[in-house]
Specification:
With about 375 residues, the chain is of the alpha/beta class. It contains 13 helices and twelve strands.
Length: about 375
């Protein structure tokens, strides 16, 4: 089997599984309990929090463990926006549905992207006004792999924030915060929150060889959130419920491993990506590679094959034990063309002729050659 859908899910690495296993049996205790074995489990939970904070250049108290990226995105958006019913939120047109759906509950302004999926910075600056409370721009797109210029986004927000503070007549009590969904970025890109200028950041363990339904929301110390899940007050009273220590420990281990290996793995996968682009150019001259060529995740190959039905192609690939996707797994059941491709100006017909191949740690050159040769045969059939 050749698995080329790592943007949707990654296998749990052996090191992560080993780190998690004690918390399913011998160390099963509730970390909020007061007896000694429970206190030991609590120390392991806090060690995991400190490890994540170390990777992000944050304080342990700024790390909130969640049940995945979707919950973290919802906590970031609802947690901010519910405090400011007359405020607005600004998001890019290519965000994951986990951002777009909660943002749509509020006064939401959508920022355009260009044909490569890169955010229009001038449009962003125009969309931010005196009532903007939150800006959410993803770090790297889950469908086409385009990496957004987060530092430039953060600079625009900082400039707007400074202008707001310098205007004494405005008396604006609203914050202006920056959230980024970095779920696809953690395997390959720098996550240091100060260098990126982020006030809130979402991460997802299921994308980094950790357990599914594990995630983190980084919340800078100056950010105030309202809880979405209420109860016992765990996770700084922002995410009540008995902590999933196994998931937290697994997430922390997966994040550490991903960041240690990211430079070497990005270099290796870039070579396979270049091979894929070369094979496509030589054998599928009508194919169009979508997304930025220069600012792109190294594991992503997204292409349009004009005149082809991507559902047929994916079924035929599956029958030959090659697992790929048309786009986001979360939207796979929808009959609507991808909102990401639409935002990039790709026609609905071409969107339905597009496939996504996303590589991972186990992907080899032989896998890429076999997958592309098979795809070429199917496209010519």
């Amino acid at each position: 089997m050749i698995y080329l859908d790592h943007a949707a899910a990654t296998p749990v690495s052996p090191e992560v599984l080993a780190a998690m296993q004690p918390f399913f049996a011998s160390s099963f205790y509730n970390p909020s309990a007061t007896y000694a074995p429970a206190r030991a489990v609590h120390r392991q939970l806090e060690a995991a929090r400190a490890a994540v904070a170390g990777v992000l250049g944050a304080r342990p108290g700024e790390i909130i463990f969640t049940a995945g990226g979707t919950e973290a995105d919802n906590l970031a958006i609802d947690g901010v926006m519910r405090q400011f019913p007359d405020g607005n939120i600004v998001v890019s047109a290519v965000e994951h549905d986990a951002v777009l759906a909660p943002a749509a509950q509020y006064d939401c302004r959508i920022v355009k992207v260009d044909a490569k999926g890169v955010i229009d910075l001038d449009d962003l600056a125009q969309k931010i006004d005196e009532n903007t409370v939150l800006v959410s721009v993803m770090y790297a797109n889950n469908e086409v792999g385009t990496i957004q210029p987060l530092r430039r986004v953060a600079d625009i927000i900082a400039h707007k924030r400074a202008a707001r503070a310098a205007n004494p007549s405005a008396l604006n009590p609203k914050p202006l915060l920056f959230h980024t969904d970095a779920c696809q970025a953690a395997n390959y890109l720098d996550l240091h929150v100060s260098r990126l200028g982020a006030d809130l950041m979402t991460l997802n363990g299921g994308k980094i060889y950790g357990p599914k339904q594990s995630g983190v929301l980084y919340v800078a110390a100056h950010v105030r959130l309202q809880p979405v899940i209420r109860g016992g007050g765990q996770e700084r009273n922002l995410r009540s419920g008995t902590e999933n220590v196994a998931a937290a420990v697994g997430f922390a281990k997966a994040l550490e491993l991903a960041q240690v290996a990211r430079h070497d793995e990005a270099k290796r996968l870039s070579g396979l990506q270049n091979l894929a682009f070369k094979l496509i150019a030589e054998n599928l001259p009508r194919a169009v590679v979508n997304g930025s060529a220069k600012h792109r995740l190294p594991n992503n190959v997204h292409l349009t094959l004009p005149g082809q039905d991507n559902e047929r192609l994916l079924v035929e690939l599956d029958l030959q034990n090659i697992l790929a996707a048309a786009g986001s797994a979360c939207s796979a059941s929808s009959e609507e063309p991808s909102h990401v491709l639409r935002a990039m100006g790709i026609a609905d017909g071409d969107a339905r002729s597009s496939v996504r191949l996303t590589m991972g740690r186990a992907t080899t050159e032989a896998d890429i050659r076999t997958a592309l040769e098979t795809l070429m045969q199917l496209a010519k059939a």
